[in-house]
């Protein structure tokens, strides 16, 4: 009986103490990161500015892409698939050009001639 009452009284205190310690630790980590960032900004203001601008641009592009994916999921899937197919074809073509440079050149010239006829 006494043990149960003690636990009932101690649990909120322990929880409160644990929360306090966790928040304190998080605050210390954040302050540490902030100090590092401020030091970096002071040392490399231009690099920091550029980094900041790049992040803004990337975030804007990402938001636009996500919005597009939500609006046109099928069209997005098709574009994604087409890009993968084109990349695959390009890789094969480059591999072929490396393996058979003369044959590739001849093929290219023949195609050009056929187009002009």
The beta-strand count equals: 0
Shape: elongated
Radius of gyration: 31 Å
Percent helix? over 70%
Tally of alpha and pi helices:
4
Q: What is the structural class?
A: mainly alpha
Portion of residues in beta strands equals under 5%
Mean pLDDT: 84
The low-pLDDT segments are none
**Based on the structure, what is the oligomeric state of the protein chains?**
single chain
Q: How far is it from the N-terminal to the C-terminal residue, by CA?
A: 103 Å
Order of helices and strands: HHHH
Quick one: biggest sheet? none
Please outline what is shown here:
The chain is mainly α. The chain is 96% helix and 0% strand. Helix 1 (2-43) packs across helix 2, helix 2 (45-71) crosses helix 3 (73-99) and helix 3 (73-99) packs across helix 4 (101-116).
How would you describe what is shown here?
- By secondary structure, this protein is an all-alpha fold.
- Helix 1 (2-43) crosses helix 2 (45-71) and helix 2 (45-71) packs across helix 3.
- Helix content is 96%, strand content 0%.
- The model has no long low-confidence stretch (mean pLDDT 84).
- The protein is elongated and about 100 Å long.
- The protein is built from 4 helices and no strands.
Keywords:
117 residues, mainly alpha, 4 helices, 0% strand
Task: Summarize the SSE layout with pairings.
Layout (H helix, E strand, L loop, with lengths): L1 H42 L1 H27 L1 H27 L1 H16 L1
